[in-house]
Specification:
single chain; 417 residues; alpha/beta; 7-stranded mixed β-sheet; 18 helices; 44% helix; 15% strand
């Protein structure tokens, strides 16, 4: 026997159907980042379209802001309960974000058997555990290298770029001696925000010396390797090897000076090679690993991904992160950002048709150890500023390297309080 709905129930169902869209997405997530702000080609819009075509039950809202505003937005949005689901992250923000409770631990997601990638293939630095958990994954990686003006190297009487600290000191001093506004090595130690000169130049030299500034999550700045590296910088300065006015120079100024052909060497992320060759195609240019004092290690900085602890759609957020880390997609992201991939299984795909300087980065860094400690340092931006102040004091002659290192350690410990 057929059963019929009462007329009132049929009318109610019909009325409700007219109020609802034909289909509702299972989840809508927001992705807050600065990556698309640095790519005018529309690459990230196309990436979202591709993801949504493959996952029709999930829609992604791309929220793009300049890098300088993203950290503040994440903190503010979380405080008022309107935060995004997937977060573009900068590793030095980690400790602050953990203190506030912004990030979701990712260990259970990384352990899933249906992931598109192997955790062991990811760039190691961002996935290192803090408080026993993993908080972010790498979208890409910008290794720090040394950019070289071979024209100035040859003019100063050398046939090859420096590979060791001793050779760097000799060549930088000889290039500075050419005068006419020429300097050997640009090193920015300006107190102007973000006061990040030490993490651009001091840390890459320290890691090439086998040193570290942290012992786990505890500051360890006054150790012998740090003091030795600060002594090296002091010696460079006294020899005239560093560009004058380091206390007022920013990383942007040093990059411009190098592009203009007025600096022999620049330590910075390899991604700057595109700006150098694009804006000064006549420069006799190469890049090499940061000169070593016994250790082949490099500072790595990149664009990381995390999930908000307050996200209401964490599974959908992870589905999107999983998509971004798949080898094929991650290779596309790496090429678009002129970076190395966060998933090292994508390296071969990136190499095909990649920019020559990107291939060079892969070659010179193969087998070297990537290091990134700023995510474990206390209150990242404040700690940069304190390092800058003490290095300035050392370069002025107000403090010895030992005294400057001890002062940073004491002031960092105060930050923890």
């Amino acid at each position: 026997m057929k059963r019929h709905l009462p007329k009132w129930a049929l009318a109610a169902a019909t009325s409700l159907a007219t109020l609802l869209p034909a289909s509702l997405p299972a989840a809508e997530i927001e992705w807050l980042q600065w990556f698309a702000a640095e790519d005018p080609s529309g690459f990230y819009d196309g990436l979202i379209e591709d993801f949504e075509a493959k996952h029709p039950d999930i829609t992604v809202k791309l929220v793009t802001q300049p890098f300088g505003k993203v950290r503040e937005s994440i903190v503010t949005d979380t405080a008022i309960g309107v935060g995004s689901d997937v977060l573009g992250l900068n590793m030095p923000w980690t400790t602050e974000f953990l203190d506030i409770g912004i990030l979701e631990p990712l260990d259970d997601y990384l352990a899933r058997e249906d992931n598109s990638f192997a955790t062991t293939d990811l760039v190691e630095a961002p996935i290192g555990k803090i408080n026993g958990k993993t908080w972010m994954v790498p979208l890409n990686a910008f290794p720090f290298v040394m950019h070289v003006n071979m024209g100035l190297v040859k003019q100063a009487g050398f046939d090859a770029p420096p590979a060791t600290w001793e050779e760097l000191s000799e060549q930088a001093a000889a290039i500075s001696a050419l005068e006419n506004g020429i300097s050997g090595l640009g090193m920015p130690f300006s107190s102007q925000p973000p006061s990040n000169g030490p993490i651009l130049t001091f840390l890459p030299l320290l890691y090439a010396n086998g040193g570290r500034i942290m012992d786990g999550t505890t500051p360890n700045f006054d150790n012998a390797k740090v003091v030795e590296t600060m002594e090296f910088i002091k010696t460079l300065n006294e020899a005239g090897a560093i560009a004058p006015g380091a206390a007022s120079r920013t990383g942007g100024v040093d990059l411009e000076e190098f592009i203009a052909g007025r600096t022999g060497f620049l330590i910075s992320p390899g991604v700057h090679s595109s700006a150098i060759t694009g804006r000064n195609p006549d420069i006799d240019y190469t890049l090499v690993r940061v000169p070593s004092n016994g250790t082949n290690a490099y500072r790595v900085h990149g664009w990381e991904l995390g999930i908000s602890a307050d996200s209401r759609n964490k599974d959908a957020a992870w589905t999107f992160v999983n998509y971004l880390l798949s080898p094929e997609v991650n290779a596309r992201v790496a090429k678009a950002s002129n970076a190395l991939p966060g998933n090292l299984a994508a390296l071969d795909a990136v190499r095909k048709g990649a920019d020559a300087t990107l291939v060079k980065q892969m070659d010179i860094l193969a087998g070297d150890s990537p290091v990134e400690e700023m995510r474990q340092s206390p209150k990242a931006v404040a700690s940069w500023s304190l390092m800058t102040e003490e290095i300035q004091a050392m370069l002025r002659g107000d403090k010895t390297p030992e005294e400057a290192a001890a002062a940073v350690q004491a002031r960092w410990m105060d930050l923890l309080k």
